[in-house]
C-alpha cells in the first residue's frame, strides 16, 4: 500500500499518498492554546479518518476510489491485531492520523484478501467506469512489483500519516509520530520502518531525519520508481 503524507509528491510504502521518540502519551497536550489528544483509533473513527485522507491527499489514486474504499481500508487496519493506528483530536475534531502494521502481521495483500468482499463492493463504482484501469492500479497497490526492501524483523511498518490542510505546521504530524512510536514499542517492536520516494521528496525525508530516522536502503518499486527505506531504532 502507498502512504500519502506531507507534500503533494510524498509517498511511502505502496500507497500513493494518499510515513521523536517519546516515553509519554501525547494525550491532553496543549497545542496553540487548545487541547490536543492522541489516542488509538476506534472503528467509529473510520469515517473521519477517510475524510482526513481525502482532504490531505486530493487527487491521489486511493482518494479517487472514494470514501467507501477508504473506510474499508482503514477499518481493515483497525481490525488487524498487528495494526498500530493512532489519531489526533483537537477541539473534538479529528485532524490527523498515523497507521502501520507489525511486519510479523503479514503483507498488505493479506488485509486485501481478508476483506476482499468489502473491497470489491467499495470498488464497484470505479470498476463500472473503468474496470481495467482500476484493477491494474489496485493490484499494483497491494501486490509488490519490483524490489522488496529489507525491513528488519520485529519492525512496525509506518504506512501513512495524514493531516488536515489547516492543521499542517501546528505539530500534529510530529505528535502523531511520537505516539505511533510509543504504541509500536508497547507492541514489542524494536524499530519503525517506512518507505518513501527518493526523488523530489526533500520535505518528507527531512521530516523523518529530524525525528531520528536514517536511510537504510535504496531500491526500485514499480520497475523504475526510486525509493528509500528509512528506519528508526526504538530500543
TrEMBL record:
Name a Pfam family for this protein.
Answer: Acetyltransf_1
MF terms in GO: acyltransferase activity, transferring groups other than amino-acyl groups
Say which domain of life the source belongs to.
Answer: Bacteria
Q: Indicate the segments forming the N-acetyltransferase domain, all copies.
A: 36-235
Task: Tell me what this protein is called.
Answer: N-acetyltransferase domain-containing protein
